[in-house]
Design brief:
By secondary structure, this protein is α/β, with parallel strands linked by helices. The protein contains ten helices and 14 strands.
C-alpha cells in the first residue's frame, strides 16, 4: 500500500508543494492535466480526515475498508494524510493529485472534504469520488456515504443510563458541528427515555474553524477530567483522536468509557484502557468504503446518498467487552430500543 504524507505548511502556497511518498508500493507519477490517466491497475485512494490514520477511530475504520479491498479485490491502495491547519486549497490539491494518478474511486474521509470534492469531481467525470459523512455536495460521480449516528448514540444513552451509579453521565464532542450534534442528540435522548433522573453533561472541545478537537488528545483528557470532577461515571466521547485522551483519563479514574466509530475495545493503541471501554457506538465505515470500491471494480459505481442505519447494521453498539455482554438487563434494554427504532416506534432526534 502506498502512503502519502502532507508536509505541514500553512495557506494556499502549501498546495503547490509536492506530496512525499513515505511507504512502499506503486509510485506512478501524476499527469499535468485535469484528465485522469487511463488505468488498468485497479488503483484506489483515500484521503484521511483530521487526526489521520492511527486515530483508533474514524480514519482507522476507513483504512480497514481499504485494506479489505486490497486483500479481497486485489486493488492497489494509496493513502493520503492531512496536514495540521490545512486549507481547502490543500485538500483540492490532494484530491486532484490522487485523481490524476488514475485512482478510482477517490474517497474523502470526513465532511471537511465537501468543498474540495465540489471543485474537483466535475473535472474528473470518469472517476467516482466518495465522501463520508456529507450529503451536501452532489454530482453524477459523487457517492455520499452517510450514517444515522443518532441511532447508535441513542443505544449508548440507554446503556449509560442503565449503568451509571452517580446519575451523571458525560458527552464529549470534538468540534461543535451539526454532525457531532447528532451524536449528542441521540445520546441525550436515549438517556432521558431510559431514566429522566440522569443528568447529561455535554462539552465540546473546539468550535469551527478550529478543528483541534478532533486531533489533540490533551484536550479530550482535560475535558474528561472536568466531567469526572463533576461526578460523571460514564463518558461518551465523539472526538476522533482527541477521544483517546478522554479514554485514558476515564480509565485511570476507574469509570466507564463509551467509544465511537470503531470498536475501540479492540483497538491495539487503546489496549491499556480496554477494560474501561464498556462499548462503542460503531459506524461501519469499513464496509462502506469496501462497498464503494467494489462497486467501481464491478463497473457499477455507487453514486448519490448511501445511508447506513440500524436497519442495515450500519451503526450499532459493539459487544466485544465481556463485562458489557454479561449485563443482561442492560443488553435487553438496548435490544428493545434497537428494535423499536427499526420498527419506527422511536424516532431519534438529530439535534439536541
Amino acid at each position: 500500500m502506498r502512503r502519502i504524507t502532507r508536509i505541514a505548511t500553512v495557506g494556499v502556497m502549501s498546495a503547490a508543494l509536492a506530496l512525499s511518498v513515505t511507504a512502499c508500493g506503486d509510485s506512478s507519477s501524476s499527469s499535468s492535466s485535469d484528465t485522469a490517466s487511463s488505468s488498468t491497475d485497479n488503483k484506489t485512494a483515500i484521503a484521511y480526515d483530521i487526526g489521520g490514520r492511527g486515530d483508533q477511530s474514524f480514519n482507522d475504520a476507513a483504512y480497514a475498508g481499504l485494506a479489505k479491498a486490497e486483500k479481497e479485490l486485489g486493488v492497489k491502495g494509496t493513502e493520503a494524510e492531512p496536514s495540521e491547519g490545512e486549507s481547502d486549497a490543500d485538500k483540492v490539491q490532494r484530491l486532484t493529485s490522487l485523481a490524476r494518478a488514475g485512482n478510482n474511486p477517490v474517497i474523502g474521509v470526513g465532511f471537511a472534504y465537501a468543498p474540495a470534492i465540489k471543485k474537483v469531481a466535475p473535472k474528473f467525470p470518469k472517476i467516482t469520488f466518495g465522501i463520508i459523512d456529507d450529503a451536501s455536495v452532489t454530482g453524477d460521480n459523487i457517492a455520499n456515504i452517510v450514517f444515522n449516528e443518532e441511532q447508535g448514540s441513542y443505544l449508548a444513552g440507554v446503556a449509560a443510563a442503565k449503568v451509571t451509579k452517580t446519575k451523571k453521565v458525560g458527552f464529549i464532542g470534538g468540534v461543535e458541528t451539526p454532525l457531532i450534534k447528532k451524536f449528542e442528540a441521540g445520546y441525550a435522548q436515549g438517556v432521558a427515555d431510559t431514566d429522566p433522573s440522569v443528568k447529561v453533561i455535554p462539552q465540546y472541545l473546539t468550535q469551527p474553524p478550529n478543528f483541534d478537537g478532533f486531533s489533540k488528545p490533551d484536550l479530550g483528557k482535560a475535558a474528561a477530567q472536568g466531567q469526572l470532577d463533576q461526578g460523571a461515571d460514564v463518558i461518551y466521547s465523539a472526538a476522533g483522536l482527541a477521544g483517546s485522551g478522554a479514554i485514558e483519563a476515564v480509565s485511570k479514574a476507574g469509570k466507564w468509557n463509551i467509544g465511537v466509530d470503531s470498536d475501540q475495545y479492540s483497538q491495539e493503541g487503546l489496549a491499556a484502557y480496554k477494560k474501561s471501554i464498556l462499548t462503542s457506538v460503531t459506524k461501519d465505515v469499513e464496509l462502506a468504503v469496501f462497498n464503494l470500491i467494489k462497486s467501481v471494480q464491478d463497473g457499477k459505481p455507487q453514486t448519490g446518498e448511501i445511508r447506513y442505519g440500524l436497519d442495515k447494521d450500519g451503526v450499532g453498539l459493539a459487544m466485544s467487552n465481556p463485562a458489557f455482554t454479561e449485563m443482561t438487563e442492560v443488553i435487553a434494554a438496548v435490544d428493545k430500543a434497537k428494535q423499536e427504532i427499526i420498527d419506527g416506534k422511536i424516532t431519534v432526534k438529530t439535534t439536541p
